[in-house]
Amino acid sequence: MSDIILEMRNITKTFPGVKALDNVNLSVRQGEIHALVGENGAGKSTLMKVLSGVYSYGDYTGEIFYQGQECRFKDISDSERLGIVIIHQELALIPLLSIAENIFLGNERQQFGVINWFEAITRTRELLKKVGLNESPETLITNIGVGKQQLVEIAKALSKEVQLLILDEPTSSLNESDSNALLQLLLEFKEHGISSILISHKLNEVSKVADSITILRDGATIETLDCQKDTITEDRIIRGMVGRDLTHRYPHRTANIEETIFEIKNWNVYHPLHDDRKVVDNVSMHVKKGEVVGIAGLMGSGRTELAMSVFGRSYGKRISGQVFKHGQEIDVSSIDKAIDNGIAYATEDRKTYGLILIDDIKNNVTLANLNAITKNAVINEPQELMVAGEYRDKLNIKCSSILQKTVNLSGGNQQKVVLSKWLFAEPEILLLDEPTRGIDVGAKYEIYTIINQLAAEGKGVILISSELPEILGVCDRIYVMNEGKIMGEMPKAEASQEKIMQVIMQQEEIVES
Amino acid sequence: MSNIVTSPEHSMEGALEDAGSMGSIVKVFRSNIRQYGMLIALIVIMLFFQFMTSGTLLKPVNLTNLVLQNSYIVIMAIGMLLVIVAGHIDLSVGSIVAFIGALAAVMIVKYDINMFVALVACLIMGGLIGAAQGYWVAFLKIPSFIVTLAGMLVFRGLTLALLEGQSVGPFPPTFQKISSGFIPDVFSVEAIHITSLVLGALVSAALVYLSFRTRRNKQKYNFETLPVSLFILQNVALTAAIMYFCYLMSSYKGLPNVLIVLFILIVIYTFITTQTTIGRRIYAVGGNEKAARLSGIKTSRLSFLTFVNLGVLSALAGLVYAARLNVATPKAGTALELDVIAACFIGGASMSGGVGTVIGAVIGAFVMGVMNNGMSILGIGIEWQQVIKGLVLLMAVFFDIYNKNKG
Ligand SMILES: Nc1ncnc2c1ncn2[C@@H]1O[C@H](COP(=O)(O)OP(=O)(O)OP(=O)(O)O)[C@@H](O)[C@H]1O
Ligand SMILES: [Mg+2]
């Protein structure tokens, strides 16, 4: 089709103890959407950090040619000057600044150091219109959801005259419709000649929008597939990623469901800051022994708020309602009581709520259940090492050692550490909040297998997920939540994506009319 | 090779180390420089002043003096470390030292209260002060910088009020013994203090045993260990240092009481921070408070406890300080908090919490202490002493952060 805009040759990058990239090659054509896929820890984010100058020239070996020129970036501003803009896996917006301030941060509309707010806001309006975000430029970032924040990041990239846009898992925390809007935007950019590199674990998206797909495995390029020549199926991509055929996306599940083990009755929660805003509205639900129950819904439908408020009132105010286990009312008024009562909550936000990032894998895994490896308040270190090693093997955590700091793990492997922590706490009821966010297909399968195992051991699992196929593939029964209320409940046999969406939409209509 | 270290580079390194070649020794040295960096710096500083003062620094009298001069800073640095690791700071410890000194003086000198009762009351008072400040920080979520800045003013003011602007002293001789006493010699040989030597030998033996056990454990779990030659060298050096120190001390008056107290505190707090659940949890709170809370840790209570603990230790330091000066003055302990905080940061603690060791803080305190002492012997004026100390603090932290960034 058109000419090559970017070529990366023989890129090699090592961290102490790990070779993250080993002679990787990547070439991107002008005006295409180039997907970069691979398992967790394959080196995708690292490759993009090399490209955007996060790791400066000399920190890696190999060559980068951009628009025919060899580039040796010292830092991000070097690459941005040439129109290469990266949006990182973790969003980098300042929560207490406005949208306009964030967009022009470091790139202020100014004269002699004085900011021209009039221009900044006018420009922001234009940019927001381009990305289809209907918000005032003066809105604070904290007050908008992740989906909209992602759009602000893209608007920010546009403000820098972007030529090559790099998106590292932009849709991992977005719901279906937000994801679609974002992908649509990329297609629009393509019309205007802007190329993008898209990293994603959502292969359906990849096969929908990508013009070419490069697959990385263990820090090496496996192949580049051209979607214009052949039609590429998801299974074809998976084969490249994991090196073998993955016949099923979801492990086979034979449910052995017994009596009710866990029950929430008339649960109400108010927003911690806005006293009169009800975020969970009279929710009642139950889980049976050996059952996997899904909660479907859009972002902001109150699922996380429900789970966190049940888990030791870690969210919200003026909480009311009852929680039962084995028919007995239990006290979940503080987190340690909830844990003692056999409840675990694995967060959707691993960096803020899940991990002690400056600490190593071992300490993170044992943190919630230190007592299990402690005698007379003294930690049994050999035993601790063994436990951490076990979970590393069991969940296949990719690391140089269990003494590696979690901040240096790839996103998916961090998620596995969070899960390990809660598995080690040996709960009877697991509240899993988006447990496969940012996790590759192979690892997802492993996590589903673990969920099945937990259910088979007689535990109750509540799975919150924004990915409907996942909910349908894993759960025995599904609740649909919207606007803080349970809108419907259906057994697996009766559920389908359409039906779930219908239940959600129904509510929207009621609200609108 | 092992189930812990999986990358090929690592096993290569391991193999090289086992061979014990010269290159590998350099490598081991480099990988340990971060861990031992400050200790090496301390030794270099000591050698430097030993040379510059033509041997005065390590004269038994001066060495004893050095220990006594710094004891109260070390005591507080241990407590401060926990507060810093939990993600806070305490600016009030200098004022608490003054206040507790004043309280002790008023009780013992003015009102003639039984000394033992007074001591216990002072320690309890320290705990209460820590609790009061900790309550604002931990439960009411007021930043510790502000709470303890307020505390610094409040307790300085209360000291003035308590002493009515006067100095109160002297203390009875038994009280002075807290700071100026030495352990009794059971062997009663003239020239040398045998008990001190015996204690030194016992401590050395215990340390060698511990390091041997750690090594065996590490090997059992396939972790990297030092090559045998270096391991032996390390232990010989450690034992030699301890015995030489005890020898010097025992050729004067023997080991001071305070040193024994210090030693016990260091052992206890090292144990707490490295081996116990409460220690682990304090590091977790400092590392990421939200994640720690969601793991079922009572984060507020732990923060509160670190302040109570520092309060008690500050009170103890206040008593030692007062006993050393033998008088309580309104100006006692001014700017002491800065030395204590500096000791923690020189020793590798992080401003943002979650990082730091007890031993590091102790070494940091002695880095400052040796420089104070050495520069005083050299007759360097107080103005330049401050300048130099400030620069050393800056360099130490720079070195630490630079090393960390290098990976
Ligand atoms: N700063 C670092 N220090 C040490 N190791 C690192 C560092 N950054 C990344 N790594 C390692 O490099 C490898 C590649 O990581 P990278 O983040 O590029 O993976 P990824 O393909 O983006 O994975 P994911 O899909 O999980 O985000 C991993 O094994 C990771 O542990
Ligand atoms: Mg990544």
Key phrases:
heterodimer, A: 513 residues, alpha/beta, Rossmann fold, 3 domains, six-stranded mixed sheet, 34% helix, B: 407 residues, mainly alpha, 16 helices, globular, disordered N terminus, binds adenosine-5'-triphosphate, binds magnesium ion
Q: Care to give the gist of this entry?
A:
Chain A is α/β, with parallel strands linked by helices.
Folded structure, characterized:
The complex is a heterodimer of chains A (513) and B (407). By secondary structure, chain A is an alpha/beta fold. Chain A folds into three domains: 4-242, Rossmann fold; 248-342 and 427-513, Rossmann fold (3-Layer(aba) Sandwich); 356-426, no CATH class. Chain A has 17 helices and 24 strands. In chain A, strand 4 and strand 5 form a beta hairpin. The longest helix of chain A has 16 residues, at 176-191. Chain A is globular. The mean pLDDT of chain A is 88. In chain B, helix 4 (93-110) packs across helix 13 (299-325). The longest helix of chain B is centred in the N-terminal third of the chain and has 31 residues, at 22-52. The chains are: A alpha/beta (513), B mainly alpha (407). The A-B interface holds A 15-19, 311-312, 314, 335-336, 338-339, 345, 347, 352-359, 363, 367-368, 370-371, 374, 377-379, 381-382, 385-386, 389, 400-403, 421 and B 3-7, 9-10, 217, 220-221, 275-278, 280-281, 283-284, 287-288, 290-298, 354-355, 407. Bound molecules: adenosine-5'-triphosphate and magnesium ion. Adenosine-5'-triphosphate binds at residues 15, 18, 20, 38, 40-46, 89, 398-399, 408-413 of chain A.
Q: Which chains have the largest interface?
A: A-B, 41 and 32 residues
* Spatial arrangement of strands, main beta sheet of chain A: 6-9-10-3-11-12
Please give the alpha-carbon distance between the first and last residues of chain A.
49 Å
How would you describe the oligomerization state of the chains in this entry?
A: heterodimer
**Mean pLDDT metric of chain B:** 87
Overall structural domain count of chain A:
3
The H-level CATH homologous superfamily of the largest domain in chain A, spelled out, is: P-loop containing nucleotide triphosphate hydrolases
Residue stretches of chain A low in confidence (pLDDT < 50, at least 5 long) are none
Beta-strand level of the residues of chain B, as a percent range?
A: under 5%
Number of helices of chain B: 16
